[in-house]
Design brief:
Blueprint: E1 4-7, E2 10-13, E3 16-17, H1 18-24, E4 29-33, H2 34-48, E5 53-58, H3 65-72, E6 77-80, H4 83-91, E7 99-101, H5 108-117, E8 121-124, H6 127-139, E9 144-151, E10 173-174, H7 178-186, E11 191-197, H8 208-226, E12 233-235, H9 254-265, E13 271-274, H10 278-281, E14 285-296, E15 301-305, H11 314-318, E16 324-326, E17 333-339, E18 348-356, E19 363-367, E20 388-392, E21 395-400, H12 405-409
Parallel strand pairs: 4-20, 5-6, 5-13, 6-7, 7-8, 8-9, 9-10, 9-11, 11-12, 12-13, 15-17
Antiparallel strand pairs: 1-2, 2-3, 4-14, 14-15, 14-19, 16-19, 17-18, 20-21
Helix pairs in contact: 2-9, 5-6, 8-9
Bound molecules: pyridoxal-5'-phosphate.
Pyridoxal-5'-phosphate (PLP) binds next to helix 10.
């Protein structure tokens, strides 16, 4: 479902026009459709519920409390990668027994905190991490339920910066070493071997790498079961891509993805855990900005807008394509380079983009910005973190306020000798 449509030439989300929202909240800001998030979750839910399953939202995609709560209220668990995310998930009401903890370098402090919360599972990524987890669990007189994150050596065919399942990537245990490490873990006092975990990357638009990876995982689970290490949970990670380039109705491919999972894992007698992030929240979000200046360059026309790479880094970091929509529909079409005000050439949202003619002061929206948008933002150039707005039907609510300069600058402290 695409929650953003034009009504009387005005871009609207659910029952509200973006222009109306922008009259109350200064640009730039993130706007999220709550219904879009709920619909995406439900699409996973109806298509996977034939299996004993748990959908753990990957909180790093968008960790606002209101977003996590939206999903927790539908029954979602959470996939977290830091103590901070674990705290966010717990605070938003995700029960600890629905939380899996991923991440390539959990510290002793983080492990201790997670053990004290009695989370569902640690996804362990190395032997040294296993040993540390065991030691801390024994010390606290607890048992840590674990899965090993297995690196299946599959090319996810996605952007190199978000591909994680090749043997050269830093993630997980090579599948060739998996059997040995499971044997080792099974003997440890503070460890309960529970699952097998895999996550091969993000923004996968081809389902074939999933099939390959999942088949290898299934074989491993069968082998482990036969060698006396019973596996009760299979965590398939996240990674399903969204269709950033498609116009109009956006198809998630969630149903097709779940179909593959069912084909491979039906009858395995294991709980299947999914960790979707992007595919739950990306399409719900719009980054609303205003044109500050138009500027004629030597051979191109620039639109300089009030949001920048510090607010939304995907175009500069991943060369990501995002549709850019005028908030008030225009008939005349013009080709622009759309850029932000930050002092970096990489601060470019789109090159050679043809869209409705924009004037200074006009509003535009960067589409599919609900995932890896606000969570990857920074205050580079001493720009304030921007507000976030949640829309449901006719209602809107600010779910994160703009910070102010005083708070931001007062985080710094002078040394006593200054
Ligand atoms: C990032 C991440 C996810 C979520 O990935 P998406 O592409 O947003 O679905 C899930 N699991 C792990 C371990 C991750 O690192």
């Amino acid at each position: 479902m695409n929650p953003y449509n034009y009504k009387n030439n005005q871009l609207s989300v659910e029952g509200l026009s973006i222009k109306q929202i922008a009259e109350v909240i200064e640009t730039p800001f993130y706007c999220y459709s709550q219904s879009a998030i709920q619909n995406a979750y439900q699409e996973y839910d109806v298509n996977i519920k034939q299996l004993d399953s748990l959908i753990c939202y990957a909180v790093k995609a968008n960790s606002n409390q209101a977003i996590i709560k939206t999903l927790a209220d539908l029954g979602a668990g959470a996939d977290v990668v830091s103590e901070g995310e674990l705290r966010r998930a717990l605070m938003a009401g995700v029960p600890a027994n629905k939380i899996v903890y991923s991440g390539v370098a959990k510290t002793a402090h983080e492990i201790k905190f997670a053990l004290e919360q009695d989370i569902f599972q640690f996804n362990v990524e190395s032997e040294n991490e296993l040993m540390l987890l065991n030691e801390i669990a024994c010390h606290l007189d607890k048992k840590a339920a674990i899965a090993f994150r297995i690196n299946p050596d599959v090319d996810a065919k996605t952007h190199a910066k978000i591909s994680t399942g090749k043997s050269e990537n830093k993630f997980g245990i090579p599948i060739s070493k998996a059997r040995d490490i499971y044997q080792k873990a099974a003997k440890l006092e503070g460890i309960v071997v529970q699952g097998v975990d895999v996550h091969i990357g993000s923004q996968l638009t081809d389902l074939v790498p999933f099939k390959l990876a999942f088949s290898r995982i299934k074989k491993l689970v069968t082998d482990l079961n036969q060698s006396g290490i019973p596996i009760s949970a299979i965590d398939l990670g996240g990674g399903l891509g969204v269709n950033y380039e498609q116009k109009g109705e956006i198809s998630h491919g969630i149903e097709a993805y779940c179909q593959i999972v069912k084909e491979i894992f039906t009858g395995m007698d294991c709980q299947i855990i999914l960790e979707p992030g992007r595919s739950l929240v990306a399409d719900s979000g719009l980054l609303v900005s205003k044109v500050i200046y138009t500027k004629q360059g030597e051979d191109r026309l620039f639109l300089i807008i009030d949001s920048a790479m510090n607010d939304f880094i995907r175009p500069s970091m991943y060369d990501a394509f995002h549709h850019i929509l005028p908030i008030s529909k225009k008939d005349t079409q013009v080709t622009y380079d759309i850029v932000g005000p930050v002092c970096e050439t990489g601060d470019t949202f789109a090159k050679n983009r043809t869209m409705g003619k924009m004037s200074e002061g006009d509003l535009l929206g960067i589409a599919s910005a609900g995932a890896y948008g606000s969570t990857m933002s920074s205050t580079y150039n001493t720009r304030l973190l921007i507000p976030e707005v949640l829309v449901k039907d006719q209602d809107m609510c600010i779910i994160k306020k703009r910070t102010d300069y005083e708070v931001l600058i007062n985080q710094d402290q002078l040394a006593p000798w200054q």
